[in-house]
Amino acid sequence: MALEDHLLTEARNPRTTEIDAVGALGIVQIMNDEDVKVVEAVRAEAENVAKAVEWTAERFRRGGRLIYVGAGTSGRLGVLDASECPPTFSTPPEMVVGLIAGGQKALTRSIEGAEDDADVGAAEIADMNVTDRDIVVGIATSGRTPYVLGAVREAKKRGAATVGVSCNRPSLLGAEVDLDIAPLVGAEVISGSTRLKSGTATKMVLNMITTGAMVLIGKTWGNRMIDFTPVNEKLRIRARRMLRELAGVDDARAVELLAACGGKLKTALVVELAGVEPAEAESLLEAHGGQVRRAVEAKKARANAS
């Protein structure tokens, strides 16, 4: 019996054997029913995902990187999540990176055989000078893609934290990494089409890792994205609006605060809410992991104690 015959993601789904006979609405309803299972599969991995969030935030605090490695759909999802971090969280593009077997061409077309070369995966990690400050997340729905296995092995040699995201357990990937995340979504609607439930589960996990880590390092206050420097009129308007809403100031004061803080919204918020000068606001943010809420609360606690 071939290895593929043991993979949950390659199994035949008994609930979709007649999907070609139910019409458009039937197809949609079947797919929706199957997708409901994805949420629970990801929920079952919550503790492992949370650990990956914490590890990633810790690497970010040390100036390290999050590096996704995958092939095919898995690789595309990693590149997608990485590419959305700069516009969403104002991060430098090198902070979250996506590597895909076959390179940029593989984003829009299948590069035959690219995923089967473990040496290429290892070489690409070496070329990035991965160190113990970084975290490498290997993404492989099957849990056995050679390109990904080669990458995580090289990353471990270099002292990086390694995480595997797959939809099979046990798996070769799970055995190689420091942390195994495996939402078991079951057989796909179309046998072996892992861009469906497996892809949805993978995207959910990757979203949680980056979003959670960004929250932990202070990129947000509540559910507001506040770590940005207003470099154009749209962002200047947004920064003033957030100061008005979060700090309760009028627009003139918002303009004054941003000017005094070099346009840094987080600093301006701490200046107003903690009643300090910009230099002290910067120190408070640095001492409290970049989190505005903690910086303000710490200053108020010291003031109340004195």
Description:
- The protein is elongated.
- It contains twelve helices and seven strands.
- The chain has two domains: 3-216, Glucose-6-phosphate isomerase like protein, domain 1 (Rossmann fold), CATH 3.40.50; 221-305, Orthogonal Bundle (Helicase, Ruva Protein, domain 3).
- Helix 5 links the parallel strand 3 and strand 4.
- The chain has helices at 23-43, 46-61, 72-89, 118-127, 146-157, 172-176, 197-216, 233-247, 251-260, 265-274, 278-287, 292-305, and strands at 66-70, 96-100, 135-139, 161-165, 179-181, 220-221, 224-225.
- The model has no long low-confidence stretch (mean pLDDT 91).
- The protein is of the alpha/beta class and 306 residues long.
- Strands 2-1-3-4-5 form a five-stranded parallel β-sheet, with helices on both faces. A two-stranded antiparallel ribbon has the order 6-7.
